[in-house]
Amino acid sequence: MAILVSGGIVLQILACALYDNWWPMLNVLMYVLLPMPLLFFAGSDSSSVLSESESPWVNATKFLTGASAVGSIAIPAILKHAGVICWGALVMELSSFFVLVFSIMCYIKAGGDNDYNVL
Predict the structure, then answer these.
(1) What are the transmembrane regions (predicted)?
(2) Which of 84, 93, 103, 119 has the largest CB neighbor count within 10 A?
C-alpha cells in the first residue's frame, strides 16, 4: 500500500515537473480536503457513512466527501479545457487520483472488518 501511495504522489509531482507547469498541483488541495468531512462530521460512528441515515450530519458528510472526490477529477479537466495544462499532465493527474483511490480501497479491505473502522 505504501508503494501505491508513493506512486500516486510521484505521478502528481511528475505531472507538474515534466511539463514545467505547476498548476496541476492545485489538485493536492482537494486531496487534503477529501477526508475532512469524515473526520469532522462522522466522529466515532463512522459505520453510518456506508448505510442509510436520517442524520443531517451524516448526509452532509456524504455530500461534502462526494463533492471533494468529484473536484479531484474536475480540477484537472477544467485546467485542460482552459488550455492551462496539456494532455500528458491531465493523464498523469487522473492516474494519480485513481492510484491513490485504489490504495485507500486496499487499506479499507486489508482492515478485515466488515464495518468501516478506519477513522
Answers:
(1) 25-42, 63-79, 85-108
(2) 93
pTM, full prediction: 0.79
Assigned C-alpha cell, 23: 498548476
For residue 61, what are the contacts with CB-CB under 8 A and spacing of at least 6?
A: 37, 38, 40, 41, 42, 49
Residue type, 17: A
* Separation in Å, CA 49 to CA 36, 37, 45: 14, 11, 8
Rounded to the nearest angstrom, the gap between the alpha carbon of residue 58 and the centroid of all alpha carbons in its chain is 19
CA distance 52 to 94: 30
Dump pLDDT digits (tens) for 14-49: 999 999 999 999 998 888 888 888 788 766 555 656
Residue in this structure with the C-alpha cell 496539456, named with its chain if needed: 86
Q: Cβ neighbours of residue 46 under 8 Å, at least 6 residues apart?
A: 38, 116, 117, 118, 119
